[in-house]
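The records we work with from here on pair a chain with its fold. Taken together, the tokens spell out the fold as the letters spell out the chain. To see the layout at work, look at the sequence and tokens printed below.
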Amino acid sequence: QVQLAESGGGLVQAGGSLRLSCSASGRISRFSSMGWYRLAPGKQRELVARITSGGSTDYADSVQGRFTISRDFAKNAFYLQMNSLKPEDTAVYYCHADQEVGPVERVVKYDYWGQGTQVTVSS
């Protein structure tokens, strides 16, 4: 079974930095993509950053240039480095991974979620 667990959230002042970690119980090499989502009060869930199995990355416009997603196959973990944090970044952050299993014509998709970690940025 695969489980994801986040760590690294907390309270930080505007302009500060945090590094979120997501540890997987299984091999992250099996994932089609890995990413970070966030959910803030009154807003829809937002994809913050994603990295595909091929190494391609995508970022929400609101975090472009400030956040960086990375992975470590040896540690079966991936990360979100958050710099120049703003109060608008306050949210619960969730790590996520996709997996595809089976023959190409009968592929079954799975996804996994962490429990979420609170990030609060004070002004």
